[in-house]
Amino acid sequence: MNIIVCLKQVPDTESQIKIGSDGKSIVTDDIKWIMNPYDEFGVEEALRLKEKHGGEVTVVGLGPKRVTESLRTALAMGADKGILISDEALDGSDSLANAKAIAEAVKDLDYDLIFTGQRGMDDDLGLVGATIAELLGIPQLSLINKVEVAEDGKSVKVDRPIEGETLIIESTLPALITAQKGLNEPRYASLPGIMKAKKKPLEEKTLADLGLDSAEFGEGARKLKILELTSPPDRAAGKIVEGETPQEKAAELAKLLHDEAKVL
Amino acid sequence: MAQGVWTIAEQRDGEIRKITYEIVSEGRRLADALGQEVTVILLGSNIKEKAAELGQYGADKVLVADDSRLEPYTTDAYVSVISELVKANDPQILILGGSVQGKDLAARLAARLDVGMAQDCTVFAIEDGNLVATRPIYAGKAYAKVTFENSLPQMAAARPKVMSINEPDVSRSAEVIDASFTLDDGDLKTKVVDVAKDESGKVDLTEADKIVSGGRGMKDPENYKILEELADLIGASVGASRAAVDAGWRPHSDQVGQTGKVVSPNLYVACGISGAIQHLAGMSTSKVIVAINKDEDAPIFQKADYGVVADLFDVVPALTEEIKKYL
Ligand SMILES: Cc1cc2nc3c(=O)[nH]c(=O)nc-3n(C[C@H](O)[C@H](O)[C@H](O)COP(=O)(O)OP(=O)(O)OC[C@H]3O[C@@H](n4cnc5c(N)ncnc54)[C@H](O)[C@@H]3O)c2cc1C
Fold first, then answer.
1. B5-187: which CATH number, 3.40.50.460, 3.30.1360.30, 3.40.50.620, 3.40.50.300?
2. Could you say which of B104, B116, B150 has the minimum Cβ distance to residue A142?
């Protein structure tokens, strides 16, 4: 059972997001970068499947050189090898373009399953997984919180929670799964794991290495164009509900919700 | 030239889902701004009788794809049929609902059509004849206004419960058309083998009109009883912070926030929740926010329309009693 896990880096979820002077990008100076939490679920699930069924886990990252850190983290958790797709021409690419580069990098590898996060905690688009699956011509199983691979390694059964129910879906392999919260609790890298990771193979590829034309990437090739970034709309200042006792406050709140907010 | 606003209906077990009315209504507003027609695509099995009624919300035409292989939803079958219809008819705009199914479908369909796609939009507008969408990014810490370039149809999905539903106009009915399409069994690689219904019988958080949420301040899973009582009274669903989910008090499906559900109810009541940035990401587009917390400095108060500084174990039961007087 050979598994590929795609990962990216996103700002730490605690980060303040400041909009740059161009009005179209964010200021990245003070940002701490972390492995996208949904991708971490993918890494963990791949390792668990490997422990059960054998095989190899390859982690594939796309982005600037700093993504190497997250690839090393995944290797320290137990992945076997890494590929970093890094090229200045990728800066500003949209999901379609990024997925094209990743699909190109993995298409000739031997794989049964591919994991991506259900979305990146940055653009919150959730398109890369499906686009990779489309380009590779394999089924996608998105927003999954349980994965079971058949004994013979030829099919997979997954749970997809939707509104009010959970679908249990079966698919042929190879397939691409996008990881949802609830899939697992990712492990921490152990100290021996971190030492071992330093010796694990980590290959770096440019667009030229992948035989891709850099004109099809970057800001200029975007199909989804960013016109402007703005700060979130301010909520009008709220009020603190008055009252001497909790009882009085409750009475006042009920009145406000009924008479003023009209939500009861 | 590409022409028309298309929306994709969502149905389950033969019933039209509410999100469909939201996007058909929004589609109507966009089509009016452009002077174009609204076409709805409705897929399913024996579903045709549900089509004409969509006219009441603004649809001019409903293209019905009826086939036993289109029930239940699978990505493979839906993408195959819809992409064929889109390519044959060349609409300018294609709007989906951002439910779980809608997100899954939109992502693969955009890839098949090789077009840009804006998920989870909270505002749509027409500018210079083109669709412009606004969507939260970085979990709502910023908003991006986006449009499309060399990319038709202009494709986007709406965050559930944000677009307002048109007052149904019973005098209006849509023209119902049988869609012609091909579906190759060889393309269908996934299959829904079972469905596990949610036991709670409560409306899913993403669709709920009202939500009462409890965090670490609830102290014990048993204490959610007081939230359930309030929720039952006002017809709300019960949510939770991650702290409550991680403690094992509530299931993952109840988590609101950046790694949980993004909700936009009319009323969100946060009880014993501090208002961490990752929690706010999931509920800050709620229309009315109430916070009940004993710490007056809790960040949740900065987002709340109504803040109650008090012990939730005193306030929540009292609130339930007080609300009874109005119902
Ligand atoms: C990558 C990442 C993703 C995350 N995703 C999410 C997410 O999706 N959703 C989410 O919620 N969190 C998420 N978190 C966690 C988040 O940072 C907070 O830890 C979490 O939201 C805290 O939950 P809480 O408010 O219930 O608990 P606390 O922060 O501990 O707050 C408890 C509050 O209860 C109040 N309280 C206590 N007792 C009472 C009482 N008797 N009466 C009234 N008030 C009382 C306290 O004053 C306090 O304000 C994420 C974190 C990370 C790092």
1. 3.40.50.620
2. B104
Residues 6+ apart with CB under 8 A from B186: none
When computed from its CA atoms, the radius of gyration of chain A, rounded to whole angstroms, is: 22
A-chain CB neighbours of B112 within 8 Å are 134
What pLDDT score does B313 carry? Answer: 98
Optimal mutation site among A35, A125, A239, interface B, most CBs of chain B within 10 A: A125
Q: Are residues A254 and A201 in the same domain?
A: no
Phi, psi torsion values for B293, nearest 5 degrees: -155, 140
Q: How far apart are CA A170 and CA A172, in angstroms?
A: 7
CA distance A196 to chain B (A): 31
Structural domain of A23 = 3-221
Note whether A142 and A63 are same-domain residues: yes
The predicted structure's pLDDT at residue B1: 83
Same structural domain, A88 and A193: yes
- The tokens of B28 are what? 């109507």
Task: Name the maximum alpha-carbon separation found in chain A.
Answer: 72
Entry pTM: 0.96
Question: Quick one: pLDDT at residue A235?
Answer: 82
Strand-by-strand arrangement of the A57-62 sheet: A140-144, A175-179, A113-117, A3-7, A57-62, A81-85, A202-205
pLDDT at B200 exceeding the cut of 80 = no
pLDDT value for A69: 98
Residue whose C-alpha is closest to residue A111's, from A80, A84, A75, A90? A80
- B253 neighbors A165 (Cβ within 8 angstroms): no
Q: Which two structure tokens, joined as six digits, stand for A21?
A: 């002077």
Give the model's confidence band at B19: pLDDT under 50 very low, under 70 low, under 90 confident, else very high.
very high
CA B240–ligand 1 middle distance (angstroms):
9
CB B143 within 8 A of CB A125: no
pLDDT tens digit sequence for B231-290: 999 999 999 999 999 999 999 999 999 999 999 999 999 999 999 999 999 999 999 999
Question: Is residue B141 scored above 80 in pLDDT?
Answer: yes
User: Which pLDDT score, from 0 to 100, does residue A233 have?
Assistant: 82
pLDDT at B198: 86
Task: Give φ, ψ of A14 to 5 degrees.
Answer: -80, -15
Is the CB of residue A27 less than 8 Å away from at least one CB of chain B?
no
Using the mean position of ligand 1's atoms as its centre, give its distance from the Cα of residue B314 in Å. Answer: 20
**Looking at the domain B205-326, which fold is it?**
Rossmann fold (3.40.50)
- Residue B204 scores a pLDDT above 80: yes
Q: How far apart are CA B103 and CA B160, in angstroms?
A: 11
Question: Same structural domain for residues A254 and A216?
Answer: no
